[in-house]
Amino acid sequence: MWRNRAEDFTQVGVSYFARHKGEVNCCVFSPDCQILLTCSDDCRLHLWNAKTGQLLAKASGHEGPVKSCAFSSDCVLFASASHDCCVRIWLTTTAECVRILTGHKRSVETVSFSPDCKLLISGGWDKDAIVWDVQSGEIVRILAGHKDAIQSSTFSRDSRFVATGSWDYTVKVWSLLTEEKEVTLEGHSGNVASLCFSASGMLASGSWDGTVRVWLPRAAAAIFVLECRGVWVRGVAFSRDGLVLASAGENDMVRIWDMSNGKCIKMLQAQKDTTLSCTFAPSGALLTAGSVDPSQEAELWQWDY
After folding, report:
1. In which domain, by residue range, is 22 found?
2. Residue 301: is its pLDDT beyond 70?
3. Cβ contact 154:195 at 8 Å
4. Position 180 confidence tier, pLDDT thresholds 50, 70, 90
């Protein structure tokens, strides 16, 4: 059972990555966990070999700090969102920019690909989320309704729904197949910085209020409220089967939660003060990435069990 396996987490490696020239805002892994992508206030993105720490490529072109980045599920593309009000789509193999998406009026804070790689969503300080066609770069739909900046976004595993998290303390879940009204999830008392759907359709939201909430989104019901003791939650990730949730925050702990009862079953010790993201590798190992200011150095931890 996951409860027993989580007790067997052991740290197996730490990798350090050369410094950006500005604060690192986001760290994400490729779906196979072979590549680490980082973006920074220095207006650049770096691609790294996640095992060796070797710098694979640098991507430049944004004219403002890069706030968020994401890989497509097939790893062919990655996307970036910037303070320059643009979203860029890049080829992973060459770090060549193949499309610039313009439509936001203010800084873009989040970007996510749909699992089928057909759509992209972005959101930011103009309070709108824009759904884009990846192939054409055209706007598919503008999702309006938040009362403050949008900081996080994610697609459901079947690409039918998208969720957005905001500085208005709410999460909204939107249907992409129908024009039915969005579902608004309320309960957080801080901005919603991270979102993740499970394979079964549960939705986890991490907030600066120090909690992670796990929802049945279509019923607008919270299953669990997971207390992280006042820590700003920066990242959440479900295991592949959805039985375990990981959360990463503004301290040096990654917490592992049992989704059968909402209990914290393991706290993993990292090295730095800030953990930006976490993910489960296909093998089941948990990988987390962190950065620290003012050194602008990215760091990768890996646990096995």
Report:
1. 2-304
2. no
3. yes
4. confident
Sign of CA dihedral 289, 294, 296, 299: negative
The amino acid present at 157, given as its one-letter code, is R
Measured distance between the N- and C-terminal CA atoms of the chain, rounded to whole angstroms: 12
Q: Which helix (H) or strand (E) holds 269?
A: strand 263-269
Q: Which residue has the higher pLDDT, 269 or 290?
A: 269
Pairing of strands 192-197, 203-207: antiparallel
Burial of 205 (0-12, 13-18, 19+ CB in 10 A): buried
Q: Show the tokens assigned to 270.
A: 């990292």
Q: 221 vs 171, 212, 213, 217, 224, CA distance in Å?
A: 12, 14, 10, 6, 9
Taking the model in full, what pTM does it have? 0.90
Distance, C-alpha 185 to centroid of its chain: 19
174 SS3 class = strand
- How many distinct helices (H) and strands (E) make up the chain? 1, 28
Mean pLDDT of 206-221: 94
Q: What is the CATH number of the domain that holds 240?
A: 2.130.10.10
**Side chain identity at residue 239, one-letter code:** S
**φ and ψ of 2, to 5 deg:** -60, -35
Residues ≥6 apart with Cβ < 8 Å to 264: 226, 255, 256, 257, 258
Instruction: For residue 279, report the phi and psi dihedrals to the nearest 5 degrees.
Output: -155, 155
Number of domains in the chain: 1
